[in-house]
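Cross-check.
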Amino acid sequence: MELQNDNEMVVTDNEGKEHLMHILFTYDNEERECSYVFFYEVGDKDENVMVMRYTSEGELEEIDNDEEYDEVEEVFNAWQEDPKIQEIK
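Predicted model, tokenized:
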């Protein structure tokens, strides 16, 4: 993951192709000592939101634990439902 500015990053897929992504927001879970980024590909008219765990080195990791995924899904749903939360960044 390479940050372009505060709201964009470049992600390289498994085939080596780079994708410009728009960052919606990030979320830190102190209990798990993990950080998450919610994002979608720039130009994606459906704005399919993805979420991944990221490390302090800027590496993205897939979420493979159901409990962890349920938690980030709950965070995303709360973000979508509350405009006040959307303003916090």
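The mean pLDDT is 84. The CA atoms of residues 2 and 38 lie 15 Å apart. Passed to J.P. for a second look.
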